[in-house]
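Please fill in the sequence for the structure shown.

STRUCTURE ENCODING:
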């Protein structure tokens, strides 16, 4: 029986850089489009034999803004994936996109290429907030793109929203939630703004020029999000993710369950055969070296028992169902209590963790301070 794996493909191009973004992406790089897709082809070819014993159960093309590429180049990537790897007929195939990059023709082309899940980065329903974020689209463009996606036949669509934004009020967030519920997408990802060093937002905040909601207001937005979406029939299945029945993101579940995946493209991360590594982060160098995995792969780290325990707990606890004690023992041949007994007792006493049947999971309060909980699982 073949082992399963997920493939992530990084497209590092975008129309313009949002003020909060610290992802590996660059605007105004059209001259690299053709050469980059050719480089991806070489890297896929280099992985061909390595993945011959695997069946691909999920593909995720992320960025950047993948849909900034001409549809012909995206189709080339899709075709080569099918030629070089064994892809499960029921595989989830997602592509990220931003409004304004999804023409009817592009959507039709993606559908024909095998893409069956669309992720659209809306972020807010208010144009003034989109402008404040440095987003290159308007609400009207999103609504048109969403309508076109439905017409083309996409029935598995995720919409990204953000809260805790500069000058965002609670009523803005409630309006965004109410309007997105009316659109009835199968999946929603709702993230709190994080200020990352090196971004324009971080510099503005550091200089005292960024007006953010208070921590209490941001917490209230998160609580309102959970309440409104669960009331509307969405399952809150991961800290920031909500899905209709049978619509959880299979690819992201691989990450949270510590399953194997391979990242293709500049800077892409992998967890393969017990080793974590990332690709060359310089675009020109990646294009030059993409044929040779040894040259591409940087910072390989073998995941030993200590790291495996830690990752399994703080990634798995992101899931609302929590972490299975039985699965922990199955993976590591040690009980969870043996490794983390005192930590579990402490967090249960603090009301941040609870045990239900065979699972350890975050409480409502634990969800709100997840990072504090996760830190407790770092072993000395």
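FILLED IN BY: designer on duty
SEQUENCE:
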């Amino acid at each position: 029986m073949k082992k399963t794996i997920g493939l992530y493909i990084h497209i590092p191009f975008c129309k313009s850089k949002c003020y909060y973004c610290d992802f590996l992406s660059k605007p105004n790089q059209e001259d690299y489009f053709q050469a980059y897709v050719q480089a991806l082809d070489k890297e896929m070819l280099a992985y061909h034999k390595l993945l011959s014993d695997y069946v691909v159960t999920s593909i995720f093309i992320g960025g950047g803004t993948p849909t900034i590429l001409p549809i012909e180049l995206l189709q080339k990537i899709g075709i080569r994936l099918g030629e070089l790897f064994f892809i499960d007929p029921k595989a989830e195939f997602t592509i990220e996109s931003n409004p304004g990059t999804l023409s009817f023709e592009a959507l039709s082309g993606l559908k024909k290429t095998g893409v069956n899940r669309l992720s659209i980065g809306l972020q807010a329903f208010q144009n003034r907030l989109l402008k404040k974020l440095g987003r290159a689209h308007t609400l009207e463009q999103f609504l048109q793109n969403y309508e076109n996606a439905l017409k083309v036949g996409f029935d598995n669509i995720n919409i990204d929203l953000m809260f805790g934004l500069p000058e965002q009020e609670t009523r803005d967030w409630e309006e965004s939630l109410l309007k997105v519920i009316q659109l009835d997408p199968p999946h929603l990802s709702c993230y709190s703004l994080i200020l990352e060093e090196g971004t324009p937002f971080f510099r503005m905040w550091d200089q005292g020029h960024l007006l953010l909601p208070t921590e209490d207001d941001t917490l209230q937005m998160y609580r309102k999000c959970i309440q409104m979406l669960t009331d509307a029939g969405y399952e809150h299945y991961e800290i920031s993710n909500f899905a209709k029945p049978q619509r959880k993101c299979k690819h992201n579940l691989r990450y949270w369950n510590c399953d194997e995946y391979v990242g293709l493209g500049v800077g892409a991360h992998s967890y393969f055969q017990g080793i974590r590594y990332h690709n060359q982060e310089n675009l020109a160098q990646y294009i030059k070296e993409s044929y040779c995995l040894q040259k591409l792969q940087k910072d390989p780290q073998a995941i030993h028992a200590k790291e495996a325990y830690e990752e399994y707990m703080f990634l798995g606890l992101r899931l609302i169902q929590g972490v299975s004690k039985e699965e922990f023992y199955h993976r590591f041949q040690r009980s969870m209590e043996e490794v983390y007994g005192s930590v579990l007792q402490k967090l249960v006493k603090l009301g941040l963790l609870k045990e239900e049947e065979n699972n350890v999971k975050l409480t409502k309060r634990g969800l709100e301070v997840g990072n504090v909980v996760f830190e407790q699982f770092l072993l000395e």
